[in-house]
């Protein structure tokens, strides 16, 4: 049975927690001094250990697992997942091609399942409470990736997942997003109603954040960004403006507007507590 939507509310998330210490510093400061309520952790990223230490200092920061299956380093050695990564153990960024391979090649799916399990295992070892699950570049929209995440739930229970459904999704994505919503509801996995940040990915600055808040739809909306205290962290994010996104999360204007809305704010578990914690 689908879970009912919580009252109108807001989840403000930083993605790529653990990618770099500049990201981790932005997450910590934006949570302590700004409006950030959640972060999605890359468990295999270079600064993941630093992110975990910081997260333990912030018990009110809701931390989820940011599964990396594209444009990032794998957790497992290449010998175990040779069909997924290059010679350096890194996933590529040709997501359409890889999506076809995940769907049609059984050996790729088996290796994908191993990598997903390894990332859940690392998160579990962190000792952090799992608030939510999502995937880098929203790759969990892919039906095969979503199936493997749902399978992993048998060993690594989770109760909430990001639904990357924008306020006005492009027509070609609507059937896939509708299917994803139905599958999450059937699996009794809580999810946000809408998301803001996809159209402005890398540019969720103060103006973009204020514009999103001015048209906040009913239900629970997740706003996500990629804040950092410095730019130029990765080549794939060369066009991003992480410092502007960081400044937006610290903006007094943004805080004042959020306060004026009078809506509940938090992480996924603040709207939909895990059944064993309810």
TrEMBL record:
Its cofactor is Mg(2+). The keyword Metal-binding applies. Keywords: Carbohydrate metabolism, Hydrolase, Magnesium, Metal-binding. GO terms for molecular function: deacetylase activity; hydrolase activity; metal ion binding. One of its GO terms (biological process) is carbohydrate metabolic process. The keyword Metal-binding applies. This is PTS cellobiose transporter. It comes from Methylocystis bryophila. The lineage of its organism: Bacteria, Pseudomonadati, Pseudomonadota, Alphaproteobacteria, Hyphomicrobiales.
